[in-house]
Amino acid sequence: MGCTQHIRLMAEYNAWMNIKVFTAALTLPETELVADKKAFFGSIIGTLNHLLVADTLWLKRFAGHPALYTALGPVARLPTPTALDQQLFTDLQGLYEHRQWLDTVIVEWAEAITEPDLTHILHYVSTKGVPGDKDFFSLIMHFFNHQTHHRGQATTLLCQAGVDVGVTDLVALIPNAL
Fold this sequence. Notes:
By secondary structure, the protein is mainly α. The protein has 6 helices and 2 strands; from the N terminus they run αααααββα. It has one domain (3-162): Four Helix Bundle (Hemerythrin (Met), subunit A) (Up-down Bundle), CATH 1.20.120.450.
């Protein structure tokens, strides 16, 4: 599997897992979703908002790649989140609808990435104002790893609330070798 194929697999995994996490979360009452569970971002909805914030920030940075990915145009025009714990949505349904839209954008963007695109050094500025010049492929891997990390926290919080998300392993989506 080449790098671009792996990126596409990760985009598919991201969308698949977000459906599973949100489907599970939608079974809970609002009080459980907003309850402070002492996680990095407090609550289930806080954690899911953080993922949306971070994904938006990274996709806006990726939109600055010289390939000028058409799929990222709508994300580039979104307001830039101002804090990693910003609550973009207070209601889970609104958050889920935006998440589904963003996951569609991510899948479309992943389809457009070419192998030569991956060797680019991307210049960006962090939310703390720190400049970075990093390998584009490595940043994409960070993007997907970050999602997996915080979705793992969300699935733990859901499990503690009595909701089973089901299978979460990437291996479920990796095709069998012929």
